[in-house]
Amino acid sequence: MFGKKNLTLAALLICTGLVRAQAEPAYYRMVGTEPIVQTGAKPDGVPRSPLFSQAPLLPIEDGQPRSRCWASLEFLQWRIRNAPVAIPLITGNADSTSIAALNEPGTVILFGAGSGRSVDFGELPGARLSVGGWLDNERLFSWEIAGFLFARGGYLFQASSPGGAGPVVSIPFNSTQPFMLNPAGESSLNAGNAPHNATAGFSSILWGGELNQLVDLLSNERCRWSGLFGFRYLDLNESLTLSRTSLDTATGGGFAVTDGFAARNQFYGGQIGLRLALNWRRFTFDTDAKIALGINAQTQNISGTTTVTNNAFGMNNGTTGAGLFAQASNIGQVNQTIFAIAPELQFKMGFAVSEHFRPYIGYSCLWLTNAIRPGNQIDRNVNPTQQPVLVPPGALVGDASPLPSFRPSDFWAHGVQVGMEFRY
């Protein structure tokens, strides 16, 4: 009889405990970014952001943890590597009887290789937009897509001469054939003592995007290590325009020669990397280290024109589709695809104003190997016989030159960013 009473009492206690357990609501608290579910009375106080390990218990909403998605907008201020120039482009000589060829005494390189001047695009403004989200309730897998764009950078160098007894400004080259009473060898594009000028203009624009899958590797109250893999695209499009104009004061006409070199790099690659996220109270620290390996599809577009007006210097009027460094032997589009690597390193420090909003500042550095840039693609060995204005009728004599070339170099861009992140 005593045993039956004990069994009855135990059964009542078990049933009471089950009913009470079912009546108590479920709550979770965030440890790092992982929810730990537990039961019991909700603690007192205003809940704080689940971004921090010190956050009190927060209710589960429809069985799902909060902040499943995020988006960030960054304002960038970056500097890109100066544009290289492999050859002397503009020369000058104080002696008005010279042609400012490189082998003449007194000739000074004003712009290009040997001048000491850099094609500095300065700091370029830009923006980057990122969107991501968790793929599972356990927050082990997430995705993220991001894209960035910079404003076009520009650089212009110009030198001019009043003519007469003034200094000479010219564009030097190595002539493989004699032309217009000039012997073969070092020469220049020069129109005597007429007023003249030479200009070199550069432009550069950079943009790209990436799509990544992130996998949680290790996390605790203070940090989270994540691995990532995905796809990256980079697009670097640059151009160089070189021109030389002369004014014939006798006829009022002009003689203008223009060369255009455009170089585009399109990188496509698979990407892997690591992400480390740290938090301390309301402060957050994030580091991304990524490297993409793939192909760089390179495209060159070379163009040139020569224009004569009012029979300047006794030449026939008109425009021909050839310049000085851009002639029939290299004008047009040429392409090649080579292997390239694109690493990126990024640091961010933020402060969580609320559960849903976090401003931050940071620094990034992006690299691209085997990039072609227009100032490296010019062949200064010129056969002027294929230029119908310089040597009519423009019939090639000897070997064709200049020729198209692909001379790669490393490209980098780096700078600071100020951003804001929204979680929902």
Description:
5% of the residues lie in helices and 57% in strands. It is mainly beta and 424 residues long. The chain folds into 2 domains: 1-64, no CATH class; 67-423, Beta Barrel (Lipocalin). The strands form 3 sheets. Strands 4-7-8-12-13-14-15-17-18-20 form a 10-stranded antiparallel barrel. Strands 5, 6, 10, 11 and 19 form a 5-stranded mixed sheet that branches. The chain is elongated and about 80 Å long.
Could you list some keywords that capture this structure?
single chain, mainly beta, Lipocalin, 1 helix
Secondary structure: elements and pairs:
Elements: H1 2-23, E1 26-31, E2 34-39, E3 58-59, E4 69-80, E5 88-93, E6 108-112, E7 123-134, E8 141-150, E9 153-161, E10 168-175, E11 185-189, E12 196-219, E13 223-248, E14 253-280, E15 283-309, E16 318-320, E17 332-351, E18 357-372, E19 381-382, E20 408-423
**Roughly how many Å is the radius of gyration?**
34 Å
Structure classification: mainly beta
Order of helices and strands: HEEEEEEEEEEEEEEEEEEEE
> What is the CATH C-level name of the largest domain?
Mainly Beta
How do you describe this structure in short?
This protein has 424 residues and is mainly β. The protein has one helix at residues 2-23; strands at residues 26-31, 34-39, 58-59, 69-80, 88-93, 108-112, 123-134, 141-150, 153-161, 168-175, 185-189, 196-219, 223-248, 253-280, 283-309, 318-320, 332-351, 357-372, 381-382, 408-423. It is elongated.
